[in-house]
Write a structure and sequence with these properties.
By secondary structure, this protein is of the alpha/beta class. It has one domain: Alpha-Beta Complex (Spore Coat Polysaccharide Biosynthesis Protein SpsA, Chain A). The protein contains seven helices and eight strands, in the order ββαβαβαβαββααβα.
Amino acid sequence: MLVGGRSSRMGRDKALLAYRGGVLAQYVAGEAARAAGDVWLVGDPERYGGLGYPVIRDLAPGAGPLGGICSALRSSTAEWNLVVACDMPGVTAAFLGELLAAAAARGGECLVPAGPSGRPEPLCAVYRPACLPAIAAALARGVRRVMEGLTGVDVRLYEVAGAAVFENCNTPEEWAGHSDKTPGAGI
């Protein structure tokens, strides 16, 4: 799971926002663990080491989510790797399990869901290690957009009827409108 982004629009670390008796990153990681088993956080071990999950240091800090995906794939030996951003409170273990099953059934090198708008959601997707060379090459060229970094990768789209699972909270206003948060500022 990707943690440690700049959270510039939020003004504070989104991963550490108070949520359902813990922090948002713990909730999303828990849903991912229920779907996939093992969960690793990709970010700063000193900052996120106390959240109860192993933390992989981001090998490309400042390169955005594409750098985090690259770091995750470099550290993994799994055939399929579920990658989820920490700021998606609508994500569920059921949806993530469905996504993993669809990836295994459809093949390809990457399965990216798309909501009703048709917009791909690469920060809640499943990646094979075969994506790593294209992602690493894209990063070396200065690419930061995830879908652009998947150029040349066998990407399969997975249509999703609703968009609630992809809801993310990027601003204080979006966070204030989210109904399941718990009071407090997090840790």
